[in-house]
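Q: What does the assembly look like in three dimensions?
Context provided by user:
Components: two
Sequences:
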Amino acid sequence: MSLTPAASKGDRCMRRLAFVIAILAVLAVAAPSAPDAQETPRPGGILNWYVYGDPGRLDIHLESPLSVQQALAGIYSGLLHRDPAAPDKLAPDLAERWTASPDGKVYTFHLRKGVKWHDGQPFTSADVKATLDRVLNPATKSPRCGSMLKPIVAGVEAVDSHTIQIALKFPAAPFLEYTASAWCRIAAKHVLDKYGDLSKPEAQIGTGAFKFKRYERGNVIEWEKNKDYFIPGLPYLDGVKQFVLVGFPTQLAAAKAGRIHLWDTWPPMKKTDADELKRARGDAVHVYQVAQNTIFLAYMHTQKPPFNNPDVRRAVHLALDRQELVAKALEGAGVPCAVFDPKLSGDFALPLEEVQKMPGCRQPKDADIAEAKKLVEKHYPNGVDVEAAVRSVGNYVDRAQLVLSQLRKIGIRGTIKTYESAAGFAVFGKGDFVFLPTQDRAMVTVDPGDLFSLIYTTDAGSNWGKWSDKKVDELTERGLKETNREKRKQIYWELQRYLLSGSPSAIPVAWVEGFHFVDKKLRGYKWAPTVYDNNTFMKVWLAP
Amino acid sequence: MADQTGVAMGAASVKVAEGDRGRGIVGSLSWFAARQPLGFVGAILVLALVVTAIFAPALAPYGPKDAAFAAYVPPGGEFPMGTDHLGRDMLSRIVWGARLSLYVGLTSVLFGVTVGALWGVVTAYFGGAADTVSQRIVDSLMALPPIILALALMAGLGQSVTNVIVALAVLLVPTAARTIRSVALSIKEMPYVEAARGAGATEWRIIFRHVLPNTMATYIVLVTVNIAYAIVVEAALSFLGLGAPPDEPSWGGMLTAGTQALETAPWMIFFPGLAISLTVFGLNLLGDAIRDLTDPQLRGGLG
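A: Here is the predicted structure of the complete assembly.
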């Protein structure tokens, strides 16, 4: 099995990836991995985990919440994935090797043979084609995988039963990253044919290390060991239980009581929570700080008043005090105003010194608030009332109160309307809102193009505010096509400056950092650079 | 003639008022304090609540939603009750919370008990099939656990202060209807009602001029006792995240926020808890005293 793409263009792609990976490697050093060296994995046991809200519909290609990804992470496999033993690297999964054409526009993936779906049916290239055709179909709203692949993939062809060829519109630097995304998992053609979509629990037939056993709404999601998994000896665990724990106090109480082995998900703990946990569990847990690859945004609907007016959107950007929001809502664990976190994106992130001097991001806020107030008064002399929609997850309600408190200073008066997690996503996705004072969006990869394809382009899967800006679309496409790293960096810097000096619908508030923990009994767990990755638990085991 | 009879046979509360005549305010208060010392304490607490609620804008040092200060500042100095997790002054929120609690408690109870009273009086007076059916509806509503019914209503109506009032009023209607109906059943058999009927008064005139006014003593007790109940249920709904919107300074909502910082900021749970306890304690003491004073079986209270 070769992990090396044969062609030179492919090499260049991989070298570019290597840079990003190097940054992640630095992060991984600081991040935890349980003390598993030299130990023999012990089979058996159930891993207890938690999910912050009910996933609702389970279609991994059509949904975007982390709760859906968590519910299904161990069930499916991808062509590639992040190496469970070293999540900063890409590794083969269903594709045992791949090659790239000399011009970098055609990738050929050679698939594993003998792989079976959880219902016993054989896995073939027809399944890969059915999956990719599904997410690439212009009629399919695929907010994660589709958003990433549609702009760059021209077509998919099954060469034979175990070879698939993907043609690109242009040589795209992040293609392999996108293919390895946990949102681009391969589904079975016969299941798609039978059920039409993958929303229901009975449609969760994958090739992953675990089978989908049970989903009790509002209570628990269970996986059980796939004894026919294509890597002999894996997984070690008999199963995984995810408790649906809504509300931060419940989550923290479960962690303190030892009911969960792992907290590697959203929302991260704040420092006071982490300290509380350490006091409660002592040496039984390893607590660590992470940059979570998640951006805290405030969304405004650009086709509904008052935010259909760019001046009002600009006023919100100017008025928001990101430093205060980070200090109070994230207890300081975050990067205020950044479109990218330099810890994750390296020099693709606009230097923070420049960011912190820009209007709306700088301190003190007096001049920006005065300017924002003028902009609102120009169109709404008596101020304006807005409904602020908030999902009741994490500390969103607290964050929303802070945001509204800041906006009252410029005459925008908000009242909060709360939604259950999945219900909120359904409403936001349809654009049935005026203002979302807080909404985190986690990145699928660490490639800088991901953020724009996910949130800011006209066709972006999470462009909930229906913003359309030709310059952003054009620069995003140029960023994907550009193969020169320095030129690519300049494109993304221009995009970041444009967002921070303009009036987008999704205002960058901060990059979210925080604390995770792992129970020391849990061995083989490796922290991954995105919350979506390395949750398959195929190489994780429990010590007595 | 019929009207004069109705007044003459009127409620004990009227007699209380007559009994107080000539004592003056100070004398009346001394008499009340001597006869009902606990009720007097309750009255002071309730008076404090009312004054706080009315003068909230003047009493609160800051806006209840202004997250303008450092988070988790312990009580003392500039912030006598500390600040919360978002940097809001707890004292200001407690003061404004009094206004919200009293507003929700009073309006929901007046609305619910009034609707219930009208329902009870009308069905008691007419009797028959309508009374039987309406009582079965009351039975059905009373069979549901109150907090579950309130949660279901709030889940359906959505979070807003108005909807909290509606939900609480719905909870109170059946109890009020049942209680007032039992009083009205005995009143409608009274000779003055017979006399009014004999004098040619219409049924609606009898209901509104003779029966309804004579249920007022019970009505007042129901209102007083249920305000405390409504405040507690509002706090419970807000605590569970289905009451007033999260940024409203509701004592129940403050308790929820406090549970997230029990170890780091115990004052966040102590002060709203204290406010709820004192308010409910005061209202219950006052309600009990009023009930004793207006109960003909407890003559001692009347002197």
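Follow-up: Chain A has a mean pLDDT of 91.
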